[in-house]
Records
---
Amino acid sequence: MIDITTENFEVEVIHASLTTPVLVDFWAPWCGPCKSLGPVLEKLEVDYGGRFILAKVNSDEQQELAGAFGIRSIPTCVLMVEGKPLDGFMGALPEGQLRDFLDKHLPSDDQLQAEAEVEQAQEHLESGDVDAALARMAQALAADADNDEIRFDLVKLQIGTGHLDEAAATLAPALARIPVALRFEALQQWLNALEFVSNDERGGWPLEKFDALIAANKRDFEARFAKARVLMAANEWVGALDELLEIIMRDKKWDEEAPRKTFIAILELLTPPKAKADAPELSGKTAGGIELAGHAAVEQDEQAALISAYRRKLSMALN
């Protein structure tokens, strides 16, 4: 439990809630219901073992905070998550209802375990121990099987490190949903490209061989599409986009629009994830090993500009 004032509110409530939900209890010494609610909340904070932080605001002494939250009666509790109010209640609820309220919003023990595994995985990645990172991410997904963020990151890491069979198995549940989320469709297209390179004889061709076929017949879409996949497998994303665009401009519907779907998938793969409020700045290289045009580090604004430019090119080709 933490006593909150205007001086420590920013740190103990706003910033703390970026990582752990904070339940702000507005109370006053003269309030009878507050006296019955307070001990129950303190007990629950202990029972929930760190799944939330209890922050107490004396409304008489901290009228500015009470006013900022529009408190009209006490006790009033507000649950802060990621720096913003998520939900709340008024009055001295019984313990059972309080548990229902908390369970509705707080991460489960399994989710917390998964988060801890993800943190460990990131530490292993930073130290260069990819195998350990893969193991930790797999454990995280096992603990929280419905977490699409973990599934996406694990598949991306598996594909980027050449564990294609494992990636296909991890990706399968996401592909079984209708509709398939775009980011998982993007991973499937990347996986398809790498499997093509591994299993098709054209996967070993030098680019010059594709270029000769295309020079002889600019509508040799099989050669263009195969070349695009080879470029994808080599992380030559811009070259792959250019080759796919050539097909789309000549035949939008070729092969059930596979070039368009692959083009969109590459843009999705190259789009940087939205940074969390407390996350450090990301380098140009992702955990999965994707690098824009083969560079080791790419400024976010440059990558965003390139993605925007190719979205415009696709729009023009389709219209």
---
Amino acid sequence: MACKTALVVVAVFLESSRFVVISHFQFLTVMWKLAQLYSASIEEKLKEIVFSMQEFLFFSLRAFRAIGACKRYWRDVLDQAYICGTESLPILMVSALSIGSLIVIEVGHQLAEFGAKTMTGRSVALSVVREISPLVAGLMLAARVGARNSSELGAMQISEQIDALRAFGTDPIAKLVVPRLVASFLMFVPLIALCDLVGLISGAYLAEWDLHLDRGIYWNSVIDILRPMDWVVGFSKPPVFAIGISLISCYTGFSTTGGTAGVGKNTIKGIVYSSAFVLVMNFYLSKVILDLMRG
């Protein structure tokens, strides 16, 4: 009886082992097929990224090569300067007011706990001029100017207006991209300078009202702390932001496909890529310039 029971147990064990081996083999087969499909998908995405970067490089080179056309299309340059400059002032002024006030609220009270609230102006000046004002203004301009460029050029692309320009012998890069590029390059520097000024002024008023800090002490600390290096760091960023935002947003507009849905998709893509460019370049420009000037 015991022998029969043992034989049954051995048979069940062998059968279950065979089932486990088969199950593991099937599982590994499925996973291998999934890995093949996933690797193929990754390969396609990498090829698409490399191809897009290549096309963007050629697009940028064509735009720089046609930069002399701004003399012929100077009216378009003025129109784009008004659009990306004057019409961007409200959102930038609101952002600058918030920047200066927020730094005073956060930093000023921390310094006041250590009896150093007279250093508030120094903190606001360095933060605003070097980093916060160019960064926030760059992000606002990437959202506003970049979205407009991508959506407008994308709509022209799907409605074949850009092809019509080529048919009439007009270079669409010179007509549509160069004026936007030149206007942004000219307007971003004064816009960010104005943001710096508004941020410092709003910080002065809030420091006087909230921290009871004399405005003379505030402005003296601002003037004492700012050096040429700080202005170089702050004002080296707007031209780079202008070039990157203009080229990225115009490229996404020119590469639009898929009708009105494609316009929305590429507009979002242009905003995301432009904002990422601003964030990355803000760090690297600060790091490189500060290292060079300190070394």
